[in-house]
Amino acid sequence: MYKLTYFAVFEPVGTGYSVYFPDLPGCVSCGEDFEEAQKQAADALGLHLYGMEKDGDEMPAPSKVPQVDTETAAGYIISPVSVFPSIVRNELDSRAVKTNLTIPAWLKEIAEAQGVNYSKIFQSALMDYLGINQK
User: Which end of the chain is more exposed for a tag (fewer CB within 10 A), N or C?
Assistant: First the structure.
């Protein structure tokens, strides 16, 4: 399992810290205090890298010395933030998502009368249809 580490710039603002990653434009976060800002930065980094991977974008190599934006407020802190992409990927790919499906009203009535778990049945049927072995 590999770990990726990028430098983040923690900028003091009136309500806590704003965070950005110089190597990853668009990857931003914030927190009410430094501890929360670090946690939120790690979440933002994981989601950003996951999105880049899904989009087929090349991930830039982490820089040794981050380029701080000249408009960054005084008192900023540069800190490394690390994530394990495989853990993030597994969590995001395994999360439950909602989807709608349409069935006849009479079938819904019978199923509800028998306490059917639609999600469980749909997952099982879809995996069977796609030829995916259940674990």
Answer: C
